[in-house]
Amino acid sequence: MTMGSQLEASLQHDMNLIRQAVKEMAGQCERAVRGALDALVNGKQQSAYLVILRDERIDDLEQQLDRLALEFLVRQQPAAGHLRFAFAALKISTELERIGDHAEGVARRVLKLHEVHPDIHAEPFAEMGEAALAMLKDGVRAFLEADAELARNTMAAERTVNKMRQRIDKDLMRRQAAGEFGLEAYALLSTVSRRIERVADEIRNMCAETLYMCTGDFAKHKAPEAFRILFVDEHNHCRSQMAEAIATTVAHPRLIFSSAGLEPSPIDPRLAEFLAEKGLDIIDHHRPKSLDQIPNLEVYHVVVSFDTDVYTWLRVRRTPTVVFDWHVEDPSDLPGTLAETRQAYEDAFAVIRNHLQDLVEAIVRQD
Q1: What 3-state class would DSSP assign to 304?
Q2: Residue 4 is assigned to a structural domain of this protein
């Protein structure tokens, strides 16, 4: 055997080890997602516990796969397509680990759902889960076989899962408004649908890495068409709503604003009256939302927190989002009429407006 053929054999051996590790990790992720769906659809708490207990195995496999890919880079010093293969494997390792996290998140919500006993109507969740699992199989096969066309087709399938999630969320809102279950069950079920959708999102990212590996096309990292900013406080009933209302006066085509709370409660009526006097209307704009109702929190470029607990919660999340903490006293905490508390609302309005003007200017100037 010549030196060149020996080097090629060593290269292929190491690449096969990485492929086998990806296949094994993907298999564990598929089992986790199926287990979470089984727990949800069939009410099997044991399946939920198994998913949670087995999540550590996926974390271990991520470390093994990362080690193999890094050793491949050091030992083989690959170039061109082989180099992209190693980088793709490292990225896919992260995406698969996140799929395991989403499955564990569904399992934990299922255990909580058992405490509130809602009528789940599980069929739409099962349908969305099966669609995501089909994407997972195709996404992994696309990487293992270096199939760019399969990667593209699998990425396109994500839109189907997104539409399923939209239908589920619309039905959940209707049923919650009709009194079929309470706000806690609604938040849990909404989180479940978001977690399943996120599985499809991670698979799309995997396929984007495969496409890059095959073609050099970085489909995942196109420049954003919009810059998303989210305002968050504890209840989404005063300061975050005020910030979103003020933000609507910013006329910039690339800026999109939303608001949410950890535990949403009805909008402060004094706030509605105060903003109406300033020509700002929130009554028909957005009812209070929880963070679980924000689709794809990871796509927000900036999150502004008005509470220390919220800031801490956001900081521990593994997202590329930039988090700011604006200290603004909550005027809704004060007793009395709007006339008696007006100055507190004026102070909060001024602080938020000044912060927002500076933030928007910085965002626009960075372009």
Answers
A1: strand
A2: no
